[in-house]
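Board notes (copied after class):
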Amino acid sequence: MQSTPGRHIKQTDDLTARIAEMNAQRFSVLDRIAIWVNHQIGTFHFFLLLVCWTMLWLGWNIFAPAELRFDPFPAFVLWLFISNMIQLLFLPLLMVGQELEGKRAEMRAELDFEINRRAETEIHEVLARLEEQQREIKKLLTQK
């Protein structure tokens, strides 16, 4: 189980290079927009924004003076159209953002696995060396 110090340095350099490659991975402008939108849509603030917008829209078009209403009750055709457009536009955008986040998460998971595998190998090497030292100590103690 003897290992050379140079091997550990090379493995560390390889892993460092892979981490740098992951961090340097550049997303296009559209990819970054998709990720940003994905993060924003997934917040409670966005949910509250939609609830407030809906309540204001429907409240205005139910309770405002008849001459000021712009989306007649009870159909709310314009509100339904805008709501459906939001859904139709955000659904594919969410899927794209999740795909990009998934790729990044897979790369992180692979690096974590590699780090854990290397740590396990080094632990086994340390344990083997400790056992060897214990044998040497016992041998020295029995010689006295």
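Comment from the instructor: Helices lie at 5-24, 29-41, 44-63, 77-143. The chain has a mean pLDDT of 86.
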